[in-house]
Design brief:
With about 290 residues, the chain is mainly β. The chain has 1 helix and 14 strands; from the N terminus they run H-E-E-E-E-E-E-E-E-E-E-E-E-E-E. The two termini are about 40 Å apart.
Length: about 290
């Protein structure tokens, strides 16, 4: 599916900027951006009876950055195509202040019980590095001999490289309810009903994604070099969450990480901010 999307986009770009436009101008753009970069998701736990769910928290954006190098080929009227590589550093945090309840078996005696895991001021922070392969349409227009504007739009393939999480604050308290005796126990370490104040960290996995991007800004020419400044936006429309099937905090008191657990079923990367760049000519030629 993703290959078909990119193939179609390349065909459209090739048709729209064919050689009938005349002059070609090929440039290399190197860009650096800073802004809000995150994985957008909700942490949602199923209720015990299976009819509904409870929202435990939502991700918050944090400051991130990106760097990229793209080849732009412009034809007459300033229309062209572009392709290249980008690196996105996304940083996200998700505070939890809620309780997850699920049916399990007591590891000490094998009896069925409802395990209640209470998160108090729990805050998991995540960072991930994505390699993006953008392909799109580029537009550039000179306003005078020095100043110009540009706008780019297209699709980019997102390849996860490194993903890590760390909990830096908060506490977890665990209790167990036994319906057979109508009693709830806590502070029983032999049954794994206890408090937990460690700071777990580890890696999480993501799936390959696809995003739409849009950039707009101004250019200033110094000789053959263009300096640029503008705004960028990228939104992933494919779910990158790996879809773990375990609880966030299991019956053995092992912490999985939000993106490795089943309470996060969908995650979409989003990035927007301000970027600067430099553009240098590669080659140009005239066509009949």
């Amino acid at each position: 599916m993703r290959k078909n999307i990119f193939s179609l986009l390349l065909c459209l770009v090739s048709l729209s900027v064919s050689d009938v436009y005349g002059e070609k101008n090929t440039r290399l753009d190197v860009q650096l951006g800073n802004g809000w970069h995150a994985l957008g998701y909700d942490a949602v736990a199923d209720v015990l009876n299976g009819n509904g769910s409870v929202e435990m928290g939502s991700s918050d954006k944090r400051w991130g950055c990106n760097v990229g190098a793209l080849v732009n080929q412009y034809f007459k009227y300033g229309v062209g195509w572009q392709a290249g590589l980008r690196l996105y550093l996304n940083r996200t945090e998700c505070p939890l202040d809620s309780t997850e309840r699920y049916l399990t078996s007591d590891l000490a005696n094998g009896m069925a019980c409802v395990r209640a895991v209470r998160y108090d001021d729990w805050n998991e922070k995540q960072s991930n590095l994505l390699l993006a392969v953008p392909v799109g349409i580029a537009y550039m227009k000179d306003l005078n001999e020095k100043w110009g504007v540009y706008a780019d739009a297209g699709l980019e393939l997102l390849l996860p490289l490194v993903s890590h999480y760390k909990v830096e604050e908060g506490a977890v308290s665990v209790s167990g309810y036994y319906s057979e005796y109508d009693v709830e126990f806590s502070d029983l370490p032999v049954h794994n009903f206890t408090s937990y104040e460690d700071s777990p960290d580890g890696d999480f996995s993501l799936k390959v994604g696809t995003a739409a991007y849009f950039d707009v800004g101004t250019r200033y020419r110094i000789g053959k070099i263009d300096l640029s400044a503008g705004f960028y936006f990228s939104y992933g429309f494919l779910n990158m969450a790996s879809g773990g099937d375990g609880h966030l905090f299991d019956s053995e008191n092992d912490y999985a990480g939000l993106l490795n657990s089943k309470i996060v079923k969908k995650a979409n990367p989003v990035a927007f901010g301000f970027k600067v760049g430099v553009s240098v000519p590669l080659f140009g030629k005239k066509t009949d």
